[in-house]
Amino acid sequence: MSSQQEDGDTHVNVADGIDHQVAMVMDLNKCIGCQTCTIACKSLWTEDGGSEYMYWNNVETKPGEGYPRGWEDSGGGWQSEDHSERQPGEIPSQEDYGRPWEFNHSEIMYEGSDEPLRPREGAEWGPNWDEDQGAGEYPNSYYFYLPRICNHCTHPSCVEACPRSAIYKREEDGIVLVDQDRCRGYRYCVEGCPYKKVYYNTVSKKSEKCIFCYPRIEGEGPEGETFAPACAEECPPQLRLVGFLDDEDGPIYKLVEEYEVALPLHPEFRTQPNVYYIPPYAPPQHTEDGETVDVERIPRQYLRELFGDRVDDALDTIKREKQRARQGDDSELMELLQHKNPAKQYRLEVFEDG
């Protein structure tokens, strides 16, 4: 691992041989589960043959099984902090991803059937099958949405798993990519990723994954303009910040390294993800009579299982800064979490001259 600590002001570490590390922060308190990010990604990258089942970006309901079903218990990642031995993993079945359904459109539209629109058969699981179910009981049931993409990890176990070095971290920005010429479709990368964000194309017989929309951030569009990844740009509530983790003047660095309120998902996998989350906070519980009680609606232990023990300090910091803002005091953290200026929300050109 190398460090960008030349001036002693930062302790950001990036992978060996990587100049800078792209990163994303998602504020889970802003996600409305509309799936616009999912559609933006799907329509751009995974509509060809063999990729129908792929969602490089998905939004799942938590608590819930997720996509693919049960991915959090499917293994992968590293056994220790020194990244010397990988944790064995599993390849999800097609049933866990969800198979395409055939609907009775023709009967309803052309044959006069008065049946409701429904899958013909075999609809037993699919992406978002358990959407909005959550957990808990009335009047204190709860759920929240969790958008997920490849984490472009600093220590990607998918990279280590490939015997042909077909999957790699790009030198200039740490994006994890699959060299389609080298890939032979062994699927060790699928098995090795604990987040199950590498997919196997059943037509090309090769692996595919999120590319952080690198053609967009390189300005390869019609006008040569630079754009953030489509999942971020198209998000109605604009919950994603995009930039570089080692950009010390950027909001991502402040949220992750200074305020420590943006946390990686499942840090126990030890891959050091570069996608971070502002954990969800919710109103306290109520009695059946509607009286507020001093009990957290989203169990703190569940959030620890997702984001690690640091979630306690993160939520305490956010609560403290919210109180400061309510009292009329300045709070840089609250400004960062509420900022909607794209010039600061997407900082992708900061290292172009460096």
Short description:
With 354 residues, this protein is an alpha+beta fold. The protein is built from twelve helices and twelve strands.
Folded structure, characterized:
The chain has helices at about 35-45, 95, 105-110, 155-160, 190, 215, 230-235, 250-260, 300-305, 310-325, 330-340, 340-345, and strands spanning about 1-5, 15, 20-25, 60, 145-150, 165-170, 175-180, 200, 205-210, 240-245, 265, 275-280. The chain has about 350 residues and is α+β, with helices and mostly antiparallel strands. A four-stranded mixed sheet has the order 10-3-12-11. Strands 1-2 form a two-stranded antiparallel ribbon. A hairpin with a 4-residue loop joins strand 8 (about 200) and strand 9 (about 205-210). The two termini are about 20 Å apart. Mean pLDDT is about 95; it is low at about 1-10.
Q: Any key phrases for this structure?
A:
alpha+beta, 23% helix, two-stranded antiparallel ribbon, 12 helices, disordered N terminus, 354 residues, four-stranded mixed beta sheet
